[in-house]
Amino acid sequence: MCRVLVLGVLPALLERDCDTFGEALHEYNRFAGRMFAADQGGDYASPETEQLVRATRALGAAGTGQSSWGPTVFAVCANPEAADKVSGGLREQFPDLDMTITTANNTGAEVRATDEHG
Q1: Residue 67 belongs to some domain of the structure
Q2: For 50-73, what is the mean pLDDT?
Q3: Residue 3 to residue 108: CA distance in whole angstroms
Q4: Residue 55: which CATH number?
Q5: Which Pfam families does the record match to this protein (predicted)?
């Protein structure tokens, strides 16, 4: 996992190479899933999650994977048009799928002071 992160994910981020970043992220995610394969029955939380990852990749997402223990699946696309193509194809295959399309937040974490009421 360290090799994939240091030689794949991070350089691709620096180079703004979405395809290489996505493929490395997908590989990293599969390695992470394999560590829990005995508990979740495979690289992903369920056969449905694996089917969704495969469909997302087949539709052209640069990278996909399972978020933590799932069942959330994420996809990385190079631009809004690619995201629309992937999401449209997924809606056709999985009509009840709940999806959110968003952009990356490159600002990092922000700590805010709150009053006693939150």
Answers
A1: yes
A2: 90
A3: 24
A4: 3.30.70.890
A5: GHMP_kinases_C
> Which is nearest to 83 in space by CA: 106, 53, 61?
61
* 23 domain residue, yes or no: yes
Residue 100, C-beta contacts closer than 8 angstroms, at least 6 positions apart: none
Residue 27 is given by DSSP the state H
Tens digits of residue pLDDT in 82-99: 999 999 999 999 999 999
Q: How many domains does the chain have?
A: 1
* Closest-CA residue to 29 (of 59, 7, 48, 1): 1
Q: Is residue 113 part of a domain?
A: no
Nearest to 33 by CA among 44, 22, 20: 44
Is the pTM above the cut of 0.85? no
Task: Please return the burial class of 82, using the count of CB atoms within 10 Å of its CB with bins 0-12, 13-18 and 19+.
Answer: middle
For residue 15, give its domain range: 2-93
Longest dimension (CA), the chain: 49
Angle between helices 47-58 and 80-93 (to 10 degrees): 130
Query: Dihedrals φ, ψ of 107, to 5°?
Result: -100, -10
